[in-house]
């Protein structure tokens, strides 16, 4: 748990939001290293203060959970992210868009379904939704730009249902929610839950908002959850996956697939996760998670995998909560209780890797090679010029690039009578600049350095 002074500062920020934005009730929580370290609630749900187990509607955070189901199908080999939608859900007018484009909102598909505003009306089955779609459902060329689409995730929910032969909410409960212990996350509300309200803009009075089963569109934003459950979800987004997905798959979901705001790049989207960059008072952060809004409710969950921190809020108001509430809570935590660096301890290194540690040269450019855990390697330029990458060991004795220019490229250690060199996708690294004993592309001038 956080210190008393930290808790007071966090609660004050939450209280300012509830009072200043005129929110009927709001809850918030902070997660560090997988554990809830602070929870706060303000306002009233009925006659009670909202607690960690009070349900609120979480809106489009539902989309991230649908994305996890899709990625589980991908990891099982049941579909490929480059598959056209028509391969798994034939009959739509946008069957040529890929699963990845739907996950990243780059399909060009319309934002909303045909008919009345779906968020305030009862839904229709998936077959009726698909039948109502026409050529006008495509607003942009697939892959051209970011264009948020609720319809896209409704279609992904139907893909999951057809691949699993059960409704997507059943698959979600069995494959994700129960393994993570998120037993308070449900498609419809259960007591105790908040009622969704609109707050009058010029008077302190409330108007109840409708709540319906949205049928095919439910996959875009129907779920209800609690602060306790969303805290576990924040840890999941940060990499504590509980066996539901490989951490590498969740990291892939957090990679930017598109930028929402052009040159600013403060908001983007991965595969089912919204992304945000925040220049905090204590440190800069890259956040992953999702916002959520439905009539009567707002919610957001963010995780920063770099230091194992997550944050969330839920409120029962149609509009009003400021976007900086959660980043302010993160800043307060970082200022009052910055995380301690992990203790350094020595670790054994295999002799063949120890031999590789130290300086290498690509032409005249000096690089440092460091040995990482699990037989990993890192190549980093010693000066200001060059391309840094980390590499993961493979079963065949090679290494695969994890990031930077060499992401996905193969690094091989080549030993011969002339010594040892590194072959990185045709780039040759040697122990001396332009070592004549190594197969430097184009050869080395026989007269040498002069």
Automatic annotation (TrEMBL):
InterPro entries: AmpC-like, Beta-lactam-related, Beta-lactam/transpept-like, DUF7586
Domain of life, source organism: Bacteria
Gene3D superfamilies hit by this protein: DD-peptidase/beta-lactamase superfamily
Molecular function in Gene Ontology: hydrolase activity
Listed name of the protein: Serine hydrolase
Pfam families the UniProt entry points to: Beta-lactamase (PF00144), DUF7586 (PF24491)
Residues annotated as domain Beta-lactamase-related: 14-324
Start and end residues of each DUF7586 domain: 349-431
UniProt entry tagged with the keyword Hydrolase: yes
Keywords, sorted A to Z: Hydrolase
